[in-house]
Amino acid sequence: MDVLKHKCFLEELLFWTIKYEFPQKMVTFLLNMLPDQDYKIAFTKTFVQHYAFIMKTLKKSHESDTMSNRIVHISVQLFSNEELARQVTEECQLLDIMVTVLLYMMESCLIKSELQDEENSLHVVVNCGEALLKNNTYWPLVSDFINILSHQSVAKKFLEDHGLLVTWMNFVSFFQGMNLNKRELNEHVEFESQTYYAAFAAELEACAQPMWGLLSHCKVRETQEYTRNVVRYCLEALQDWFDAINFVDEPAPNQVTFHLPLHRYFAMFLSKAVKCQELDLDTILPDQEMLMKLMIHPLQIQASLSEIHSNMWVRNGLQIKGQAMTYVQSHFCNSMIDPDIYLLQVCASRLDPDYFISSVFERFKVVDLLTMASQHQNTVLDSEHERSMLEGALTFLVLLLSLRLHLGMTDDEILRAEMVAQLCMNDRTHSSLLDLIPENPNPKSGIIPGSLSFESVLSAVADFKAPVFEPGGSMQQGMYTPKAEVWDKEFDPVMVILRTVYRRDVQSAMDRYTAFLKQSGKFPGNPWPPYKKRTPLHPSYKGLIKLLHCKTLHIVLFTLLYKILMDHQNLSEHVLCMVLYLIELGLENSPEQESDEEESAGGQERCHDSWFPGSNLVSNMRHFINYVRVRVPETAPEVKREPPASTSSDGLASSQSSRRKSLQRENSGTAQVFSLVAERRKKFQEIINRNTSEANQVVRPKTSMKWSAPGATPQLTTAILEVKESILSLLIKLHHKLSGKQNSYYPPWLDDVDVLIHPEIPRYSHGDGMTAVERILLKAAVQSRLNKRIIEEICRKVTPPVPPKKISSAEKKTLDKEERRQKARERQQKLLAEFASRQKSFMETAMDVESPDADIAMEVATSEQHVSEAIYDCVICGQSGPSTEERPTGLVVLLQASSVLGQCRNSTEPKKLPTTEEEQIYPWDTCAALHDVRLTTLQRYFKDSSCLQAVSIGWEGGVYVQTCGHTLHIDCHKSYMESLRNDQVLQGFSVDKGEFTCPLCRQFANSVLPCYPGNNMERSLWQSHSNKCMQDLVQEVEDLQEQLGTFPVSISSETNLSKEMESVMKDIKSTTQKKYTDYSKSPGSPDNDFLFMYSVARTNLELELVHRGGNLCSGGASTAGKRSCLNQLFHVLAMHMRLYSIDSAYNPWRKLTQPMQDKNSELSEEQPEVPVLYRDVSSLLLIQILTMPQPLHKEHFTCIIKVLFTLLYTQGLAALSVKCSAEDRTAWKESGDLKKNTSSGEKSWEVLLGHVISELSKGKIYEEGETEELRVVNPDSVECYLQQFCLPFLRITSLLQHHLFGGDLPSCQEDEEFTVLASCLGLLPSFQSAHQFTSASCLDWPVPAFDMVSQWCSELVSFADKHPDQVKALLIQEPKWDLPRLLQLPENYNTIFQYYHRKTCTVCTKVPKDPAVCLVCGTFVCLKGLCCKQQSYCECVLHSQNCGAGTGIFLLINASVIIIIRGHRFCLWGSVYLDAHGEEDRDLRRGKPLYICKERYKVLEQQWVSHTFDHINKRWGPHYNGL
């Protein structure tokens, strides 16, 4: 690091720029002059000259992040230009400077490595806890380095310069063995260090990415020299490392590091050499001893992964699991686990296979388990971990022998295999798939996400599932799912195991595979992972096959098959699966055939000294092993047996699955067990002796003796087992065992010889263990005639029964945890399923009871009538019983204010969201606005109290009541609320506001609606039809209303029930804001309450109508089946309405049913009452019904309807008459007069219309200018107009009747709706045939029609004298309301974004930081904006109260997400805009074009209209008025 000498102003400037940590203005200034070529070169050289100074300043900086960004901002412009970079490299030693600066930077945070030999280690590693690594401070320098290495010319200089390579390997070795983990054996670690993030990031960025950069320039034959250089210096660095940590042949126990960048450099350059440069592998590989050392640490990592997943590192905390996951995670795997496994494959292909296999089992600590004895002692592993470690070892061997990622697969095949593996685990979205496929970190390599190959491979292996909804309302994104043929042919469990971060993903892939096989009918049971054919090995790696054909592996396989057959403990189906997989791999990859004949001759003689005669699996499979000598604890059952007399030592094989040269040692009384471990030692020693001249000076380190403890367990004794099995016979017996039947295996070729010629039969490709065994036996038979013959022989002998499993008490205890867990899991599943079905049936029965108005069976016996009260189940205490005055039961309900009805418009075209200045939405034509105007106009001219009964309110801010249908005792509910109040858990609702969730179904609720005690007895009476005449009924109704003042007994005396009814009424009132309840001129007048109460009923009926689609054509029970609470609601409202007496003089009932005598009294009043023809008939209906004593009789109900229908009809005629032209009016009047005296005059619309016209002509009603006219006035159109006019009333009435008296609504066609409803309501005396039907035939006048009509019309005439301009406007015109809709959104999200994200807010005239737009009315608001805050309410919350009475639906412009505000809570709903792959892009992070998803928008609208946001969306939080 030379001293800086400044020669010019530029150098001085740059110096101070660096000193002050790159102020932004200086950076901009220096960069702005770059277009000048001379300046550019001068500046670049100056920058390079100051590089070390930049590094020093960066290390000291407190704001290293900002500084880093600014450095890179400059350097990326200088070093991305290849020409410039080359020039600076040549003239200023740029590469030297960079490498040296990086080296210096890391040298400041080195610590002594504790790997292997803690005391004497000379190796130093970076300390991952240092800020330099933790905060990634090094990244600008590393990124510059990666940047210049992307230029071919610069990279070549680097690869040719031996000195640089040595320095670089020195730098890399600082990371070799960093972040060492030591296994905690006693206490749980106190502090879980999170340094591993820094370690993995450092290896990826500082070591792996430069490596990928260099590799990209080693693509062709001419670059062989570079590879040789790198490999040479890499091996030198590795040798130095082994010396520094004092490593001989045994890794220190209980420690692991995941960071071996030198090994990985070596591996990746080897792979490249073979794949691209046609180098002969053996010319660059080191000697055997070095290979033995090289394999140890990567193998240690594989064993440690298995230990971590077996919970052996649990005392090290969660972070160790985090490391194991990061190591295989998609962004790291191809720089970490893939090179490691490849390096092990290379070592395995070049080393002695017996040595390699025994090393694997020793590393995995399961050597002691591999004995034929039924009991053993493992000196290095607890028995609870044995099973999973054995599974780990076998799985690792399968991975090692099956993976071909670096051994011959092309890039496209790799991409396809990766993609299939990810899709098999789970369906994936396009973006997550891009993220999960390990990309080559170097951009110039073939596999770039998003390149053509990615899309083409994706379309080849996967089908796109469009975004759909699940019934719960949870939204799915567009997903890719594997095609059927992929499951059939390409599902590769090995690849899945390699790529799963979570073990559960392997299970998930298997479950999906199982489901596919069931669905496609290929296999009904639980299949085993399928065996997949591999791509052929590259010739350089043929040696890998030797592993499958070595005696050690065959002994292990034989032993395990035997143990599984004999039911020894700690074995699992997974072990068997892997054993069979290895056998099958061996059969698939067998070396050249020896001729069968010579084998049969020489076979016997050769096997006198070991388990198996040769090393070929095909022939070893049929070799019978008669006796085995084992070392067992004295307690083992084998000891009791006397060895048969014929035992001779040559027939024996020693224990612990190791082959043996001679048995003399055993017989000469030495107790030493000749084990795999010892065998491996010997091999190692031989190799070392071969390689080192000073062999005798090799000192074995003391520590390594810990593993084989020959005399550690003195109570071992030798026993001899009679086995008499071969691998083939064991397989056949396994088949019997798996099938549970004797002689279940029958050689298929005996029936069909073709099997041997075409062994690839689809029926064997999917199946369970039995299929696997059959497949293996078939392959064995195909490969050798002898095997075929022996299989037939074994099958002929009747096999002895499988020994029954005797479990001793000791074994019972160890009946291994896994199985117990499995059973517990199954039990739990069963319980849950049972509970769910009980809950379901309970819910169904609960629903049945809830609505006493649903289909009551009227059992009227001959003499007696059954009195049955409605029975309710309390979901808290579980008791059933009727609701009583003393202990009332209530329905769980949710009360919410709603303005949905007010949003109806009378146009069928939905309004569009404005996306230009021209399109604006004005709320003048909404239902709420029109009702508002009407009430205000009435209040101008008429008496206030009468106005408040002439209309309904609640179009905005009406109270909607819904229930989940469950009931509870009200006292139980109170104690439940208490317990919720004391519960400290943060709930998503506010208990103080009375909110809770239904104890049974967890639906959100905020009140309890008392059930009125009533029995079904009366109901049957009310239902019965009476033959009383109309006049009597009218009189009865009037008398009943007269009783108003006198309360029913139960209410005058305070009972629990009446208290509850009052409290629920308070709840209903407080649900909505005051402005939506107060309409009278004198505040607090009782008329106001009266109006509010019957309007609640109206709101709920109208909303139910909307939920049914605006008409009753579909019929059936109420919307949510039996979840309606209207009946109970009516009782509560009726009880309160009856407290307000209506003065009998003003009772509207009289005006409707009796001609008034005295007409002059009204004129004296200053403000008249509202004329009857101006009153809303549906409101009158509710007033009449709710002021009658409950329960109401059906006949009275029908009577009220008939009377009101006459008024409604007259209103229709009056409205019609105003619409006609003057000539039409005269014509109608004359034709009406002609028919006036016929018998059915009162039931003919012509006569009545004529009469109305003549009556109204008396005043100034028709004088004002012509209103819009009905063009065609033929009789049909008049009839049609009248039916449409009356339909809304008939619908509401039918719903009301359905709720009060039960009985289903009939379904019908749209054009028949009028007649069907009229007959259902009892307005149609006898159903006439359709063609001659007229609406007037439904009329049933209580008094002569013409008198009534004249009286009603005279009120209008007298009003017209005073205010002729208003007469027509106030006549009731029922417009055709369309259903409530949200605004229509444009197809492309960009349209919205461009218009709104720069739009200024109308309130504060600024551009909001978070703009949002209301999807109900299109208002533009500032989300969270303090600028528009009013009385501590932010604008969105305020708008949600004004526009939706507490419910707001906002689209957040900058995030494309919809947010719902409901009262004091809010939730993120999701997005209705998806990209081309059906995915959301929240916060517009990915920047993809987004298009409307109509299905999602429909669901949103559906939830808004049906008021189910609270139930369907689960994640609510309080907004504290801050949105």
Note poorly predicted spans. 443-447, 594-609, 641-674, 692-714, 801-815, 845-867, 1015-1024, 1045-1052, 1159-1164
Largest sheet: 6 strands, antiparallel
How large, in whole angstroms, is the Cα Rg? Answer: 45 Å
Helix content: 40-55%
Main structural class: alpha+beta
Provide the residue-averaged pLDDT.
81
Q: What is the β-strand count?
A: 23
- Distance from N terminus to C terminus (CA atoms, Å) equals 57 Å
Strand order of the largest sheet: 17-16-18-19-20-23
The proportion of residues in beta strands is 5-15%
Based on Cα principal axes, name the global outline: elongated
* Number of helices, counting only DSSP H or I runs of 4 residues or more: 61
Structure description:
This protein is of the alpha+beta class. The protein has 61 helices and 23 strands. The strands form nine sheets. The protein has a six-stranded antiparallel sheet with strand order 17-16-18-19-20-23. Strand 18 (1447-1452) and strand 19 form a beta hairpin. Helix 9 (139-149) packs parallel to helix 12 and helix 43 (1030-1042) crosses helix 51 (1194-1219). The longest helix has 34 residues, at 817-850.
